[in-house]
Amino acid sequence: LGGTCTQVVACTLPTIGLPPNSVKQGTAQTMTNGTDTTIYICSTGYSGAITATCSTNNAAAQLSGTCSQVTCTLPTTDLPTNAAKQDSATRMNAGTDTTLYTCNTGY
After folding, report:
1. What φ, ψ does residue 60 adopt, rounded to 5°?
2. Whether the predicted model's global pTM rises above the 0.85 cut
């Protein structure tokens, strides 16, 4: 026949000490390496990938990856007719920053 059998490795899933700006989705408290997929996602306004790896039986799964803040460039040209930007910001952070565009006087 040939082949080998390997022991199933089960780990607990961390709920604290997560990479900054990430959260765990779902209610699972353990994972089995090679068969389970547990999703850690980045918080609103952040992007990236977080991976859970289970290598030692009954230990906490190891998390790797980062969540970086999403930034956007603000338009300074091609504004609607008779509109103006009210601050000097040229970039903003998604999910946390706002900027104000207003109509010119009389509009």
Report:
1. -75, 140
2. no
pLDDT digits (tens, 9 = 90+) for 58-78: 788 888 899 999 998 887 778
State the sign of the Cα–Cα–Cα–Cα dihedral 64, 27, 20, 44: positive
Burial zone of 66 (CB within 10 Å; 0-12 exposed, 13-18 middle, 19+ buried): middle
Tell me which residue of 16, 20, 41 sits closest to 29, measured CA to CA.
16
